[in-house]
Write a structure and sequence with these properties.
globular, electron transport, glutathione disulfide oxidoreductase activity, transport, Glutaredoxin, 4 strands
Length: 83
């Protein structure tokens, strides 16, 4: 199974939706809180300049935000990424 990392903040409704979708899939993920400025800077660099949360990575693939992951789910492309 691919390693899943999700950059979040506690008050972000899209972060909660993304985590809920991943939990429904029965996968484990690492949540990285970006209230810390160093973690936010690392996320922004890794996400090619995107500063909004969530930013979701499955393995080496940058999925993007919740809307991007939900689109993959609708297309049937999320499960193959999750492995």
């Amino acid at each position: 199974m691919a390693k899943i990392e999700i950059y979040t903040t506690p008050s972000c409704p899209y972060c909660h939706a993304a985590k809920s979708l991943l939990e429904q899939k029965g996968v484990t993920f690492e949540e990285i809180d970006v209230r810390d400025s160093e973690m936010r800077a690392a996320m922004t660099q890794r996400a090619h300049g995107r500063r909004t949360v969530p930013q979701i990575f499955i393995g080496e693939t940058h999925v993007g935000g919740y809307d991007d992951m939900a689109a993959l789910e609708r297309e049937g492309a999320l499960d193959p990424l999750l492995g």
